[in-house]
């Protein structure tokens, strides 16, 4: 196994999905589940998020978009680490 920046970004995206969904599964299974349920993004988020304000839900949906870019099937389509940081800072 070789460690790459693209692989690290994918793993970070999978961790974000773990946190956003409240589900802890194998990374690829969670990614498939999220992609399958993208029609209803509020359903993807942990049920505790629905108990928060609209502003917090909007931030979590913005983080979801970042996570989805990070877990892109194409390693070339994944952002660099610094770009992920910038996106996260802008999601505040």
What does this structure look like?
This is Serine-threonine/tyrosine-protein kinase catalytic domain-containing protein. It contains 5 helices and no strands. By secondary structure, the protein is mainly alpha-helical. It has one domain: Transferase(Phosphotransferase), domain 1 (Orthogonal Bundle). The longest helix has 17 residues.
Summarize the structure.
This is Serine-threonine/tyrosine-protein kinase catalytic domain-containing protein. By secondary structure, the chain is an all-alpha fold.
Key traits:
92 residues; mainly alpha; Transferase(Phosphotransferase), domain 1; globular
Question: Helix and strand layout, with pairings?
Answer:
Layout: H1 5-21, H2 27-36, H3 41-44, H4 54-70, H5 81-90
Tally of individual helices: 5
The CATH topology is Transferase(Phosphotransferase), domain 1
Helix content: 55-70%
Instruction: Find the CATH superfamily.
Output: Transferase(Phosphotransferase) domain 1
Number of strands: 0
């Amino acid at each position: 196994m070789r460690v790459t920046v693209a692989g690290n970004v994918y793993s970070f995206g999978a961790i974000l999905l773990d946190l956003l969904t409240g589900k802890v599964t194998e990374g690829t299974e969670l990614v498939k589940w999220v992609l399958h349920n993208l029609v209803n993004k509020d359903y993807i988020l942990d049920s505790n998020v629905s108990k928060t304000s609209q502003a917090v839900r909007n931030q979590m949906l913005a983080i979801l978009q970042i996570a989805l870019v990070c877990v892109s099937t194409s390693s070339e389509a994944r952002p660099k680490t610094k770009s992920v940081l910038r996106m996260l800072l802008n999601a505040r």
